[in-house]
Structure formats: structure tokens, C-alpha cells
Amino acid sequence: MSAIIVERLVKSFGKLIAVNEASFTVDEGELFGFLGPNGAGKTTTINILTTLLIPSSGKAVVGGFDVVAEAEKVRRIIGLVPQDITVDDDLTGMENLMLHAGLYHLDRQGAKRRAKEVLELLNLTDAANRKVETYSGGMRKRLELAAGLMHHPDILFLDEPTLGLDVQTRTAIWNYVKKLRDELGMTIFLTTHYMDEADALCDRIAIIDHGRIVAIDTPKSLKNSLGGDIIELEVMHNNPEDVVQLINKIDSVKKAAFMDGLFRVTVERGEETLPMMLETLLRKGHRVTRVIMKKPSLEEVFLEYTGRALRAEQGSWEEAFRQRMIIQRARA
Ligand SMILES: Nc1ncnc2c1ncn2[C@@H]1O[C@H](COP(=O)(O)OP(=O)(O)OP(=O)(O)O)[C@@H](O)[C@H]1O
Ligand SMILES: [Mg+2]
């Protein structure tokens, strides 16, 4: 059975279409990733699936319940770890979890037992009675994850679970997320704009850009769909078309295009094709000033499907600014 079914989902804010005819399904027990740049529509989609927003049109069913008509039932079986910081600095870890349990009307005794369990699961037992203001960023994120698990959700939604964390902490969070799927069989829907994260963690990935889903598959199939290695060249030229034509004549070249000042070439057996390509270009008097060879990664997949690069640094300034605003608001 599908844990999540989304059919032609649309959400517009005035003229802006944040989610544009999105359709996909997530299997039970699957770890499904929503990968896209800032403003792609990831949080909007999560907010609809978790009943925080009403769709403009289309349909979404979560755990067998319609997110609009049966919102209350959906809420009972899902957990949400939102993108913005939600734990209270002035409370201890345990107090935060008990507060959260109150929102779900868990009885006090049961809640206490459960809080101990989830704190143990996320390795926070020793910090349980410390105020959250003394926690590191990674500990906070783990506490938020713990809060999302308090009421034993079947389906867990994680919006950018590792945003702004250092590499080591991100890896630790991934391991906890994997554990939830592997040991508890939880269905997990997460959003991210870290491609390595999506690649290493997710069973399947949907790539979303400007509210549209442009590709859905396993990370492996997405990478294979590019059909070879990627060579990027910076070449002195008068007319890019001439260079593209020249490169395309080489047998093992599958595709060549000029993008953002670079020639992007998809080839079979990059190691063998590259010297041939350089020789061909040089013979025609084109000086090659830079060469990069890449094995296909999700970065290349993203570029292929959207025509734009998705780099983590792309959103970093905006992200840092937003995080600062959240912290300021929390302090006020
Ligand atoms: N309440 C709202 N009112 C108006 N526009 C909105 C609202 N919420 C989101 N948007 C717009 O919808 C688009 C999608 O936003 P969304 O937050 O879903 O993106 P995202 O993929 O989560 O981005 P990020 O990676 O920055 O979190 C953006 O252009 C955003 O400005
Ligand atoms: Mg978002």
C-alpha cells in the first residue's frame, strides 16, 4: 500500500504557483526525498501533506486519509519536524518533550515513559534535564526529531533535517533517520537541498524545481539516466556552436552543450574520450583553458533536468539570514 498519494497537487499564493501539478506516491517504509533549491516548493508541499495548508487543487492522501476531509486523522498518524527551530530554549529537553506530548493529549505517565524512550533513541539521555540553551545545534535538531516521534507516528515528515549543521552532525542525523526506517519500519518523507544527503539516504528522490516535479527515481537510476561521465571544458572560441559541432563529431560523445560559459559534454568512458577531445580541439586551434571531469552525481542530474546548478552554497546567504531572523524572533 502507498503511505502517501499525491495527485496533481497545486498550491498558489496569489499569482505565485508554489506547487504546480505535483503527482507522486511514497511506499510504506520508504525513505523518500524531496530535492530542490530554495523556493522550489518543498516546505509548501510538506505543509499540505501535514494539514497545515489547504491545497488550491488536486488531492493528497496520507496513511489512507485525505489531508483536507480527514485532517484530524492524518494528524494522529504523522510526525512533523519543521524547517524552523521549534524547541524552547528556556526549557529542558524533557520539559520540551512533555510540552509537545500535551499537544497530542498523551497522558502524563505514558508521555514521561515515551520521552525517556525517544531521548535514549537519539542519544540525549544525559542532556535531558539541561536547558536547551546549553545544547549544540546538532543536539537541538535531535531534540526536534525526538519531539516529532513522541506520539509513535507511522509517517514522519522532516523538512530540511540537517540544514546548517556541520558534516559530522549531519552524518549522525542521517544515521538516526536510517534507524527509524530500518528498525521501526517508519515511512519517512524528507526535504533537502543537500544532494549528497539525498543520494546517500533516500530510497527514491523527487527533484522539484519551481513547484514542478521534474524527475522521480532511485538515486542510482537518476544518475544512470545521464548515460555516462560528464566533461566540462572552458575553451577559447569565437562561436560556441562551432565548438559544440566539433565535439559532437567524436564517436564516444553522446551530447554536448554550451551552458554558463562552459561546454558540458556527456561521454562514454571519460578517461579515454578526454585526451581525444583535447587533441581535436587543439588541432582546430581552440585553446582549452580548463577541464573538469565528473562521474555522474545528483548535481549533474539536477543540472540535466532543470538547466541550472543546485549548489549548497547557492542558498547559504539567504539561509543564514533566515536562521538569524528565527533566532532573533525566538529571543524577542
Ligand atoms: N505563505 C506564503 N505566501 C506567499 N508566498 C509563499 C508563502 N509560502 C511560500 N511562499 C512562496 O512559495 C514558494 C515556495 O516556497 P517554499 O517555502 O515551499 O520553498 P522551499 O522549497 O521550502 O524553499 P527553502 O529551500 O528555501 O526552504 C516561494 O517562492 C515562496 O516565497
Ligand atoms: Mg523550505
Provide an overview of this structure.
The protein is α/β, with parallel strands linked by helices and 332 residues long. It has two domains: 2-221, 3-Layer(aba) Sandwich (Rossmann fold); 227-295, 2-Layer Sandwich (Alpha-Beta Plaits), CATH 3.30.70.260. Helix content is 40%, strand content 27%. Strands 6-7-8-3-9-10 form a six-stranded mixed sheet, with helices on both faces. The longest helix is centred in the middle third of the chain and has 18 residues, at 167-184. It is elongated and about 80 Å long. The mean pLDDT is 89. It binds adenosine-5'-triphosphate and magnesium ion.
H-E order? EEEHEEHEHHHEHEHEEHEHEEHEHH
Determine the CATH superfamily of the largest domain.
P-loop containing nucleotide triphosphate hydrolases
Strand content: 25-35%
Instruction: Report how far apart the termini are.
Output: 46 Å
Q: Extract low-pLDDT stretches.
A: none
CATH topology of the largest domain: Rossmann fold
The helix content is 25-40%
Strands side by side in the biggest sheet? 6-7-8-3-9-10
Number of domains: 2
Shape: elongated
**Largest sheet report:** 6 strands, mixed
| Mean pLDDT over the residues | 89
Structural class of the secondary elements?
Answer: alpha/beta
